[in-house]
Amino acid sequence: MFLTALLVTSLASSAAGASQLKPASVEDVVAAAMTCLDATTSKGPEVSRLAAAGWVEALDSAGRPVTRGGHLFRKPNISAEIAAVGPVCSLVAPVASFDDVKATLSGVDDAVHPDRFKKVDRGILFQKGSHNLLFFVGSPSVKAPAAVRIDVTNMESH
Question: What range does the record give for the signal peptide (predicted)?
Fold first, then answer.
């Protein structure tokens, strides 16, 4: 409940972009966030771990990554995208409602069991061992949020 209160106070200042995918399920977002967490090492995200978890890299017609300087992954039947760029594994998933945002936040909290968490300018920061997970909401409005974004880094890589 405390995490929900922190999230509500951070909604107005969030600035993540909206996705054009259909809303993702809470379970899919939490599972994708755990995939990012598992894939992020002291060397940054290991794309082989994302691929092993069933995420498929988006490639252009020449077979090159569509993201300059990084890798964009999608998973069949999952309305989310994972970008591996530099030291960050970034998950973006559209959500249908603020209830889904709260449930996703709670699900991530339950799955990660963070050592500590705190409200930061852009959202809520979970810290677990050497990993940081930054959870924030993109384009919130009175009617519905556009997307949640979870950025995972490993502090040993800095």
Answer: 1-18
